[in-house]
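[09:14] KT: can someone run the structure on this one? pasting the chain below
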Amino acid sequence: MTECMIKIENLYQEYKTERKKDLSRLKYEYQNQCIQPFVELIKDKDISNDENLKEIIRQYQERLFQTRDQQGFYFTPKHIWLNLIYINIFLNWLVNKNYIQSQPFKTGIKKSFIKEYERKYEERRKIFLNDRYKKISEEEILNKYFAHISIYFCRQNKTNLKRIIELLLKYKGERLFTDLTEKELEIFRESLFKVESCTCRPITDNTIIQYSRALKWFYQWLYEEGFIEEEKLKDWTYKSLNRFVKKKRKEEKEQIKQKIRYYNPDEIIRAYNKHLEKTLNGYLAILDYSAALKTYIRYLAVKEKTLYTADEQIIEDYKKYLLNCEYFPKRHYSATTQVDKLKQLKRFYEWFLDQRYILKHPLENYKAIEHYKWIIEQIKDRRESEIESEVISEFKEVYINASDYELTLNLTQKTLDSHRKGWRFFFEYLKDKGISNLNDADEILLNEYQIYLRKYRDKNNEPLKPSSHRCFVGSLVSLFKYLCKFRLIERNPMAAITLPKYDPGLSTAGLKDHEVRMILNMPDTSTETGIRDRTFFEVLYSGGMRANELANLKIHNIDLAGGMARIDVPKGGKKMERIIPIGDEACYWLKRYINEVRSKYDSLKSSYLFLNKTGLPYKKGVARMALKKYLLKSKLKNKKVVIHSFRVSCGTEMLKRGADLKYVQMQLGHRTITSTERYMRLVPCDLKKAHRKYHPRAHIMECISENRKTTENGRV
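[09:31] RB: done, structure tokens below
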């Protein structure tokens, strides 16, 4: 191998570094796209010889002529010319560096070169035209096109292309789409303004532009491949389409006339309910939408506004109202509920605008994801301030300092919350006892506190669970350790206290394999929601993950080729992170979900694997509701099945088939083997065999038949 072969890649890196200083980012990236394939071609060839280099350039020109771009169209003559211009610049740089003696483009690349390739381009198209024009059926053309877009286009563009062709086929009637004139296609473009994504919800301006571009790409492909004689829609650039849509919208607004009469809220609600009955399935869904509207109307009345006069500022105020609203003392709406109420309101205003009650949509620019993030931030701050305000003033300083200290210990949020809850409960007890100094909390008082916890009843007259009892007492261990460490008390009375025994008993009831398969087969996988739910349940069952672990799974945590998943938000914190296998069936559904559903949300740049319809991370509460929906339709509706049942089923089915207990522990992410041993109590297979073998009454049917024979013989 010659020196030139070895150094070409290093020289190209040096060239890029020099050029980066002189070019804009876009121009720099475009030049790299043009030169990189050429460098790949010559890196194992000797270009120090002029004749060799000329032959390589000639071959590369032919290669460019046959190359397609990212959208599957042949490089245009101008595109080929630009490629060679940038290669010429690179070769000149190599000459200046004395790496090669000369280069084929000594006189540069003239624009006459474009005419030569325009001729070749047209010759190729004429060959296609002679072979294909009006010789292939529409169905065959569409099959070829769908095969073409499956190679070159991303998921979102594929969807747009297929949708626009569906609309075009409806529009053209009996005519061939190859015979439609440019004027007819412009009329078709105007008809896109009447297309609805759902009832009373027209497609957005951006969607109209994307559909129009998709139509242009389709006719460009027809022209290149020789299915039509004349090039159509050449002037449909992004800028021209954007101008067209804005102009059309402006004309529509000028033509729309608002309804003359103002309707009162009751009349509007009745009309809206009739609309909901036509467009929504389910009585409860209609009630939910109607209730959201009534809540909003009551709020407007307080603000001396109406549905007609509400504007964007009122909507912002309403968001703050929902954030702080207590539907029950100290009970606030969840972030998801608040977002749902605004989405329901947005749908109402879409109908309100469509029916010409108003001319402007106050929720037109509403973004559910941004609203959700804002709520989460506000809730976090409010929750911390509310908790601190609940702490008794005598112990507030200790509570805050102890909380800050525990933050330095890298404990999980769940542990921190558990400790703080236990401290607040203990401080309330001290207040009732009239104690304001923690030095007065001795062994006798702590023992009395344990007795108090044992007898405690909540507002529903229910006792504390053994696990809660243990957590409350356990939180005092960390509190008194902190107090002793910083010498806030003289001695640690918790040293004499024994934590209450806690036996978790049997695990959550699992499902048999055929019962799991029954649930897995219920989602309608022809819909995006069905694919998402099927995938979620498949991965739950296959990986034995906790619902929260799966909800927090990121796309980069999945290795579909190796069939592995990384759990990096586990119960128990970072030390419980693990990599676990998932089955082939789960991998199949993951691939399908990522390609058909998840890819639609790529523009959101969310790293979470599972997203809901609005692009927000999938919560286990939503999964719980989905499972409940499928259970109500199945034969298992009377059986107690929860999300955790899939995890239990994974562990028990592995144990039934002879898996080592240690492997099951690793799969499920149990901290101790005793947690996994609980699953053994759910699958007493060996015990059943021994019972049948050794117990005299185990074979009851055999005993009954023997007794009957004896009785009959006695009668005889």
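[09:33] KT: thanks! The longest helix spans residues 368-390.
[09:34] RB: yep, looked fine to me
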